[in-house]
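Before we proceed, please read the two lines closing this message. Tell me what the token row says about the fold.
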Amino acid sequence: MRTEVASPKVEDRVRDLHRRAVAATNDGQPVVGGRLIRAAARLLGLPAKAEPEGWPGWPDLATRVLGTYAAVETALGNSTRGLALLDEADLLVSDAGRGILRQQRGLVLILIGRMDEALNCFDEAIPQLRQAGEFVVLARTLLNRAMLHQYAGRVRLALADLDQCEQIGAGQAEEEGLARIFAKAAHGRGQARVLTGDIPGALRDFDAASGFYAEQSVGMLPVLAVDKARALLAAGLPNEAAAELGAALEQFPRLRMNQEHAEAELTRALAALASGETSTARSWAVRAERRFRRRGNETWAAVAQLTVLRADFAAGRRISRVAADATSLADRLTALGLRNDAEIAALLGARARIALGDLDGARAGIAARDRRTAPLENRLFRRLALAELGAATGNRRVTFANARAGLTQLQRHRSRFGSVDLKTGTTSLGKELADAGLAAALAQRSPGVVFRWLDRSRAQAFRFRPVRPPAHPQTVDAVAELRYLSMQIRAGELSGKPDAQAVKRCAALEREIRAKGWQAEGTDEDHAEANLREIGDELAASGSAMVCFLADHGALCAQVIADHRVALIELGPASAVAEPVARLHSDLDALCGRQLPPQLDQVIRRSVRTQVTALDAILLKPLGARLGDLDVVVVPTGALSAIPWGLLPTLRGRPVTVTPSSSAWLAAGHRPRRATGAPLLVAGSDLIHADAEVSRLAALYPEAAVLTGPEATVAATLKAFDGCRLAHFAAHGHHERENVLFSRLNLADGPLMAYDVQQLSTAPEQVVLSSCDVGQTVVRAGDEVLGFTAALLYGGSRTVVSSVARVDDRTAGGVMLAYHRALSSGTPPARALADAAQAEPLMPFVCFGRG
């Protein structure tokens, strides 16, 4: 037994090493923390199997060092060593240090997945720490207990602990380490908000935490990225979640944050599962499960096992095994205190039994009612299981009721989002609910029921009032820099000297701007679903027919509404459309603005005729008798959104309007016309014939604001654009498929982007985009669309005329002049475009919205 007392100088050195070790570990750098705490332990001669009296004046310091040492060893994967160090500390601890040691044991138990034991430790430690005046450690303990409450789905208790944590910080502002704790409290509050469905609020909290982490705790940034990815998954953006995880997964091995690394792998599995990539999901989940088991963390390994089973079920693999394993796993997760995960496992087992025809077994796994505090995913999962059970028993009423209830819950969830980017995200469960309802409707063959489910299953983001996102100072600066760099990139491209660094910086700025937009709060729904009678009356009044396309189990169908009659017509395999659409776009782009050798020109034009004839035969010929000579309103699905409908023989010369949904079309017709400002005519940069095109149009609109040359700046354009009744742009355009908010038109001082359109207080009534491919969209699950044209329609524009492929500005000018002549004389937009395009048979302009 040692009896010597170390010198005050050594004691100061040990305390300094301990402080730095705690800071490094809390900053997400356990390797650095481990190096420092081992040095402190060596100075103390620890571990020493000593009795408390062998350390006069030192037991509390030894306890702290051993407790931190245990946490670091466990974080690095040495849980056996960590628990042994805690046992050593138990021999030394004084009454004053007992609270600190209990919270350290609780932290170690979290890291190895023994959650209930950890919670008991924290419950015991908190009053002891408060009595001892250990406020920084107390705040840290409350943070960890809040995390445990979140895991168990006890969000109210988690938020209460975070409130206490912030109160401690406010009362002990001078204490070292509280700034970091404040950041972690914001981080924890964001995690809790994800569970309640408040994604914009969660992202704001994460943003607040990231500012501190970036300055003082960079090791926490990948941990934060994982939580942000979970928020994006909850918003239905799995691709964005996967991108957020990419950098984090690269950093964890270097940081040796094994628990966090495994959690990131599990989240990546969930992102793949939400994207329908079942093999990828299974691979990531298996990897995470192995990593958890190596750490001895059986709790998290069970959660990973659940994800493996979900991937197997989604892929249709080993359904009998899934049914059995999911049911037993539900019991295990319940015993581990993970109520939400246990519920998902039970519902998964029930769905597997439905697929196997064991309906009595399935009923046993579905709770009698929703838990009010359950996360949205659990409630949607339950509704989907009940909808599938209804379908399996032939009770369509049950299927309809539960699919509708689930979609209503999802819609309420999405109403909290202000960002169109988030609103157009649809969870995979939401799509499955819509598909279940639509499948039951198709089986029933009732025209009204099929119509309702068609409308309910697509483009629901159009049902919300547009939200003008707040102009954060950082965002304003980022947008200005992005515009400047875009000009540099364009100049480099034209000179043959691309600027790779500028391109990389632009991508980073786009991510930053987009992420800020996600933080905007939403509003309630704007308009209700259309009904078949309303649509029929409106179509009859306008002399139009509506064609709603849908894909059902790989088969393409069309519902035709004309002359107050409704027909559902099967068209053939959906796969037959993709190739001619892709070839048509390739051919149109190859012809655009080029002087090709005559023989090659003829070959490509012949190919165009072949593709449009093929598309016409698949999509429209079977509908010919019902369409007659009526104008046509098209509600496309998937790849059909990219078709230049006016080129198809059946529709050649006929007014055609393309709309995201029947409800969106009806709402656009009934919306009050608020935009009354003077017309706007804009000629963009680097387009040879743009000035001449705008000059000819100016003669038709004497009162128009005309912006050409250096006057056609973004600021001047946006000022005149806001609230004008008609705008025409003759400019280079580009559809940015990877980041559609930054699809753009090139103006004198940089790009006018789809992002900018969201800033308008009053959307223009009509917009004409005499530009390349800015009519294209990215189509997300549920036929939610994004792009420059879509941004205008979301904002409230009634009509947008744009191209779904490249256009030759020499010939486009003539079409546009003819179009505006007809428009200015009172001809409706769709009719004006159909007549104007007759002279140029390969013009891929489309009238979107309400024609």
About this structure: The chain has a mean pLDDT of 90. The first strand starts at residue 544 and ends at 552.
